[in-house]
Design brief:
Its main location: nucleus. This protein has 78 residues and is an all-alpha fold. Helices cover 64% and strands 0% of the residues.
């Protein structure tokens, strides 16, 4: 039985360059999307206006942060 001849892989240069252009555009788009989505939201520093209870509020915040830190450490140890 005679083997079938395989077709050539030649293509017009216009098609070749069009494919290259489309690929580069796609890569640019993907980079842009990755760059756009990578940014996370920055945490706001709690700003407390000057008032009578400012020191109390700051102390409460400090205590809660310490408690959360201890809980995280306890979770990581266990």
């Amino acid at each position: 039985m005679v083997k079938l001849k395989k077709g050539t892989k030649r293509q017009p240069l216009a098609r070749k360059y069009n494919i290259q252009k489309m690929v580069s555009a796609h890569k640019k788009k993907m980079k842009r999307l990755i760059k756009k989505g990578a940014k996370g939201q920055k945490r706001k520093i709690p700003e407390i206006p000057n008032c009578i209870f400012k020191k109390d509020i700051l102390e409460n915040l400090k205590r809660t942060k310490e408690i959360e830190k201890r809980q995280r450490e306890a979770r990581s140890k266990s």
